[in-house]
Amino acid sequence: MGQLTPQGLVLHDRLLADMDAVTLHRLLKLRCEVFVVEQDCVYADVDDRDAEPLTRHVWLATPTGEPATYLRRLAEPDGATRLGRVVTAPAWRGRRLAAHLLTTVMADVDGPVVLDAQSHLRAFYEGLGLTVSGPEFMEDGIPHLPMRRD
What DSSP character marks residue 81? Predict the structure, then answer.
């Protein structure tokens, strides 16, 4: 079990190899429910980056194990840390859980942090210290902005 947060949620940080099947199922189900179903975006959410040896899966969960918010932390070849698949379960939105999770993870990163943010979330990520680092682009039919914190 991980660290308990003020909201009564438990912070977890695991490699894929260290996760049990039920936990992995819950996390992938949340990602699919939001990114594929809710956002109506058919794409391969589960990719080979999930299983890379240095990929960290970080999430806040209820004491019973239901994920409230999640992200994955990837090691880029240039030494940057890439954050992605940032998602919050619908029942947990509006409580700044993703901001808490991102702040916690970024506090543990030495060096640059990069991510591709959905464009409508620009102000949210800027509020966490990231800046736009390139032009807007389309990914799976959704406008995105590359963002960075050095």
Answer: E
Residues 6+ apart with CB under 8 A from 77: none
Q: What does DSSP assign to residue 41?
A: -
- What's the chain's length in residues? 150
Q: Are 41 and 141 in contact (CB under 8 A)?
A: yes
Tokens for 19, please give them: 């996760």
Mind listing the pLDDT tens digit of every residue in the chain (150 residues)? 466 566 789 999 999 999 999 999 999 898 888 876 667 766 666 788 989 999 999 999 999 999 999 999 999 999 999 999 999 999 999 999 999 999 999 999 999 999 999 999 999 999 999 999 999 999 888 899 999 999
- Residue with token string 């975006």: 41
